[in-house]
Amino acid sequence: MRPLSAGPRAPVSDLAQGFAEALRLLGRGDPELWSIILRTLAISGAATLLAMVAGVPLGYALARGSFRGRTMLLALVNTGMGMPPVVVGLIVWLLLTRSGPFGGLDLIYTRRAMVLAQFLIATPLVIGFTAASVQALPPQLPDLLTSLGANRLRTLSILSREAKLGLLAAVMAGFGAIVSEVGASMTVGGNLRGSTRVLTTAIVTETSRGNLPVALALGLVLLLLAFLVNLGLTVLQQRRAR
Amino acid sequence: MLWAHTPLPVAAQQPRDLILATTTSTQDSGLLDSILPVFFDQTRIRVKVIAVGTGAALEMARRGDADAVLVHAPAAERKYVDAGDLVEGRLVMHNDFLIVGPAADPAGIRGLADPARALARIARTGPFIARGDGSGTEKKELELWNRAGVDPATVAHREETGQGMGATLLVAEQRQGYTLTDRATYLALGARLTLVPLVEGAPSLLNVYHAYVVNPSRHPGVRLPEARAFVAFMVAPATQRLIRDFGRARFGQPLFYPDAGKDEAALGRPASSRERSGAGVR
Predict the structure, then answer these.
(1) Model-level pTM?
(2) Chain mean position to CA B127
(3) CA A157 from centroid of its chain's CA atoms
(4) Residue of B nearest to A2 (CA)
(5) Would strands B68-71 and B206-214 be described as parallel, antiparallel, or unpaired?
(6) In the 8-state DSSP scheme, what is residue A186?
(7) Please, how many CA atoms are within 13 Å of residue A110, restricted to the half-sphere of its CB?
């Protein structure tokens, strides 16, 4: 992003400049900004999708299952929901870095490494929200479905539909957590221009370069992005909601 | 500057890349953003720039987590060279460190020739905003405290940000405190700062950058051809001209002085202070 020329120093005018800069960058179709936006969506979107694939069945199993250690697992998941992303980032970095156990995979400082870290951050959230929403359903529902001849997959899909409110809340919580996260993305992605720089890490870069209006503009774009995604999901969630 | 990363319709050649561990100043000043596209055009090698501060960059070299480093703490570098982690080092460029502070200069250091004396005075008044992140700039700062005979831990108004140079300058600006900065980052933050250079030009404030290849015989994962190509690129005459001209138009003065092939001992006094007279000029 083009650095701004010397601007006034007052924070208030920085804010105004930030808004103006955001509109200008978006309106002008700044190619670097757009590629950062699309990259951010692709990485966090992929991580959210994977977290749903892994987290929904696990959340269901935790909610419905009766096995030893279930309460302990739920407690672990609930802890994981508050796991600091920067810690996840550090652990993934140590695993993937050249000298780490999986260094040979050459994944460090790639988008795939970012997806992995974000997946690990989002999955506990998805499990937790899924478990809570499934537990809110009538407990006899699965048995009823089974007695009506539904197999496990079918049962899960019907229950998912019934738990739609909760599941979409899980998507929003997962996506919201990772799209706004900076610590892990910075550590495992390396904030590489044109390859792993996403909105949050670009904000850090522009801030440390003193391009505060540009940093603020990126922040506004991030908020707008999060709003649009959540708007879409909320519309989906509330449609036909009883 | 917006360098378009033109995707290349290149024939089957596997995209190559290397990990460069470097200091925040080369990134925050925008230097790497401006020269690395040229490297890519010449070699089709993508450089993954990890800007972490010199201490962390050297540590990445020791672990074999990087292929090349571009750093600015010669005394610290020597240890890694002696230990065999860094090889094929080349002198790339220099600029200088400045002690900047509020124009009112409550500690009264303006124009002092000896930066260590300036720090001794700042110790009495503060505030001094330090990096505290193991960077090359912090190593220089600690060296200066040491020469001033002051234990930085005992300085009441010394605060550590734990962040890069740009972020630290912004904190110092808000606190209206003193800090030690490299000239490039200070100039790059330009209009954002009211802090002025108060002490500059001393030989001990020279800020020298070297590029190294991480030793492939110690770390077999190192991408030797790519790392060598990068170091060679940094000292190539055309690149050295790019370094010389970088930021001149925008800041009215160079941010870095190319030094490839020069005798390091002869750098003695930073050229910047020869060209510019007196402190406090922005």
Answers:
(1) 0.81
(2) 23
(3) 23
(4) B1
(5) antiparallel
(6) I
(7) 13
pLDDT (average), residues A216-226 = 92
How many CB atoms within 10 Å of residue B163? 20
Q: Which residue of A has its CA nearest to B29?
A: A209
User: Exposed (0-12), middle (13-18) or buried (19+): which is A202, by Cβ within 10 Å?
Assistant: buried
Q: Is A11 touching B (CB cutoff 8 A)? A: no
Question: Cα(first)–Cα(last) distance of chain A, in Å?
Answer: 47
**What is chain B's length?**
282
Cα separation, A210 vs A205, whole angstroms: 9
Report H helices in chain B: 24-28, 31-43, 54-63, 74-82, 115-125, 136-148, 165-175, 183-189, 224-235, 237-245, 248-251, 271-275
Report the Cα–Cα distance between both ends of chain B, in Å, rounded: 22
A99 touches chain B (CB under 8 A): yes
Distance CA A180, CA A223 (A): 9
pLDDT tens figures, B20-79: 999 988 988 889 999 999 999 999 999 999 998 898 999 999 999 999 999 999 999 999
From the list A2, A7, A192, the residue facing B48 with the nearest CB is A192
Chain centre to alpha carbon of residue B164: 11
Q: How far is Cα A116 from Cα A123, in angstroms, rounded to an integer?
A: 10
Say if the ipTM goes beyond 0.90: no
| Pairing verdict, β B45-51 and B16-22 | parallel
Helix axes of A164-179 and A31-64: crossing angle, nearest 10 degrees: 140
Whether the ω angle into residue B115 lies within 30 degrees of 0, i.e. cis, is no
Total beta-carbon pairs less than 8 A apart between chain A and chain B: 74
Contacts 24+ apart (CB under 8 A), B8-16: B8/B44, B10/B44, B13/B44, B15/B44, B15/B46, B16/B43, B16/B44, B16/B45, B16/B46, B16/B223, B16/B226
Read off the DSSP letter of residue A192: -
Q: Could you tell me if B65 lies within 8 Å of chain A, comparing CB atoms?
A: yes
